[in-house]
Amino acid sequence: MDPLHPFMKRFGEGLEQFGALWNDYEIQGFENLPTDRPVMVVLYHGFLPLDGWFFTATVYSRTGRLLHALADRWMFKVPGLSWVLRNGGAVPGTRQDAIDFLKAGNSVLVSPALSGNKGNYKVIWGQRLGFAKVALAAGVPLVPIFTEYVDELYRSPFCDTAPFQTIYEKTRWPLVPVVGMGALPWPVKLRTWVGEPIEPRADDTAESLRDRARDPPQALMRE
After folding, report:
1. CA 178: distance to chain centroid?
2. H helices within 47-174, ranges in order?
3. What is the per-residue pLDDT across 25-55, written as a single tens digit (0 to 9) for each?
4. Active site annotation includes 68
5. What share of the chain is helix, strand, coil (3-state, %, to 5)?
6. What's the chain's Rg over C-alpha atoms?
7. The dihedral of CA 134, 118, 76, 87: what is its sign?
8. Cα separation of 113 and 102, whole Å?
């Protein structure tokens, strides 16, 4: 079992229970997640990726394996949040660090881009290639996951406006109002679908691997 700070282990257990009770959280296709080698799990990013937390907590509970979130570097500079991230297994998402981390046998979870209200349930990665370059360099498969109704957990009326998009692209800070049941998410049913691993091929480029990884989650959304 991957080591985890005792507080974060208890927090993960509580998070898993909260997801099951509040959002009736479940996972379909769990068998598609390899357990004998490092992988990069690619998450569709709702405005607040609470499903990623539920998924990570459930994987840890079932297998003892920790999916290390690749987080923006600025998040590790925020007092309090930095402690939570580091003790919860998150690592700064710099390219070489991520490659070395995967080659050392660890698995990671990454969200290439943030969705907006007009982009609900569409894979909008634009020209982002970093995650594909890391997977190619480390020689690990991509495992796409998508959670039904994740965009209904919270609403952000101004998420897709030009000022927000400009601020987010430059700072990676999601500075917009968020609407839920107070601090709690809406109690919608959440079901995470795990796609089959996408193995890097000898003739893959970062662009071709990104494009191959984009199709399965979009197909899951259409289903």
Report:
1. 19
2. 50-63, 81-87, 95-103, 130-138, 162-171
3. 999 999 999 988 999 999 877 777 889 999 9
4. no
5. 45, 15, 40
6. 17
7. negative
8. 21
Q: H or E stretch including 78? A: none
CA–CA dist 23, 192 (Å, integer): 12
With tokens 């692209």, the residue in question is 169
3 state DSSP class of 183 = coil
In 3-state terms, what secondary structure has residue 181?
Answer: strand
Contact 144, 174 (CB under 8 A): no
Question: Coil, strand or helix: which one is 190?
Answer: coil
**Quick one: 97 exposed, middle or buried, by C-beta within 10 A (0-12, 13-18, 19+)?**
middle
What is the pLDDT at residue 70? 85
109: closest CA among 125, 128, 90, 94? 90
What SS3 state is found at 216?
helix
Q: Quick check: helix, strand or coil at residue 155?
A: strand
pLDDT of residue 122: 61
Catalytic residue among 9, 45, 210, 214: 45
Give the amino acid at 205.
T
Paired tokens of 147: 């959670």
Give me the half-sphere count of Cα atoms (radius 13 Å) on the Cβ side of residue 78.
10
Residue with tokens 């769990």: 30
Residue-wise pLDDT tens digits, 69-86: 888 777 777 787 788 888
* Two tokens, residue 192: 């995470």
- 157-199 pLDDT tens trace: 666 667 666 766 666 555 666 666 767 888 999 999 999 999 9
